[in-house]
Write a structure and sequence with these properties.
Helix 2 packs across helix 6 and helix 4 packs across helix 6. A 6-stranded mixed β-sheet has the order 3-2-1-4-6-5. The protein starts with 7 loop residues before the first strand and ends with a strand. 46% of the residues lie in helices and 18% in strands. The protein is of the alpha/beta class.
Length: 148
Amino acid sequence: MNHPDSVLKFSLGPNGLSFDLDNQHIQLEQGLDFVDSKSISYGVIDELAIEKMIYFIEEIIESNPLRNLKISGVAVTSDAAMTQLSESFFSAKKQISRIELEHGFNDFIERLGYYINQVAPDQLYIFTYFVFVREMMHHLRIEEIQII
């Protein structure tokens, strides 16, 4: 039975994705590395890579039990990547609304080269993480993400 206060707890890792809601646990074997391998050619993140990421992330979200979850609108995570995203785009806030995230994402897309140059090559997954979080907010109707 889902309660109105059902908060989604998620973790997005390189080799797997984890989602918990009430007593449901969903573990997906396809992680951020899988999305990167399908999206990024020659290690370059550009508009085409972002479009491909969106496509593959939508596939992951829509083809898994995730889409059936009844989420109250709040999701929480303790992922270091979310903290890093918050520091880079949201003044290190612990709560980020869907509107704030969308503004940050649009800024990221408009200034892609700038942001990519701000990050070490082994930290580029942070952008795949960003795209994944944005798509989760859209497809799973999440209104706010809290960093715990």
